[in-house]
Amino acid sequence: MIRLRNIEKHYPQGASRFYVLRQIDLDIHEGEFLAVMGPSGAGKSTLLHILGMHDTAWSGEYHLYEHAIHGLDRRRRMDLYKRYFGFVFQSYHLLDDLTVFENLEVPLSYRDMARGERQSIVCDMLDRFQIVGKKDLYPNQLSGGQQQLVGVARAMIASPKVILADEPTGNLHSSQGVEIMEMFRKLNEEGTTIVMVTHSETNAAYAHRVIRLEDGWIAGAPRGE
């Protein structure tokens, strides 16, 4: 489904370069639940944002199904992102000038469906996350945990083929965190591919496979020059 070959990202540092990711080779199979772990600064979130096509300043090859992402322009990449991906951001990324209801409706607006159908799906998701009472509030009227719940709901609402999750339970109470992870488990069992960055060994236990990043390298992978 996803094939990365020799993905690298760096920043200039004086006369040299500081590498955030080095020679990343990774295959992610359809229906897989993959956890990405490692210390802070290891490149975990950077890798997730490359997968989600938010970061374009990298080198290497990225294939999604038959699409060679590394050869596409930004507009085509965004079209594919909207078609295939849902993203749970660590810092929420809700739209401040939209209500909870409107934030949830945004991903559905990219799909060819009637307004009534979109609204029905939003209502179902509000009920599923037990946030019906928050639907007319704006993000700045919500707690951090509530914003995270809305962010997870928004990522799931359009039934994406892939969910990318950056510390999805980091701002939630333990019971809410378990509920979100159980939702991810159910979605994965139904065929959704999930790639999750986490520091939590408990969350990582939900995954089929765990990779660990160390200083931008996949731990255990051979290191070239």
Structure in words:
The protein is of the alpha/beta class. The protein has one domain: P-loop containing nucleotide triphosphate hydrolases (Rossmann fold), CATH 3.40.50. The chain contains 7 helices and 10 strands. It has helices at residues 44-51, 74-84, 100-109, 115-128, 144-156, 174-189, 201-204, and strands spanning 2-13, 16-28, 33-37, 59-64, 67-68, 85-88, 162-166, 193-197, 209-214, 217-218. It has a 6-stranded mixed beta sheet, with helices on both faces. Helix 6 links the parallel strand 7 (162-166) and strand 8. Helix 3 packs parallel to helix 5 (144-156). The two termini are 28 Å apart. The relative contact order is 0.20. The mean pLDDT is 94.
Output the keywords.
single chain, 225 residues, alpha/beta, Rossmann fold, six-stranded mixed β-sheet, 7 helices, 10 strands
Protein topology:
Layout: E1 2-13, E2 16-28, E3 33-37, H1 44-51, E4 59-64, E5 67-68, H2 74-84, E6 85-88, H3 100-109, H4 115-128, H5 144-156, E7 162-166, H6 174-189, E8 193-197, H7 201-204, E9 209-214, E10 217-218
Parallel strand pairs: 3-8, 3-9, 6-7, 7-8
Antiparallel strand pairs: 1-2, 1-4, 4-5, 9-10
Helix pairs in contact: 3-4, 3-5
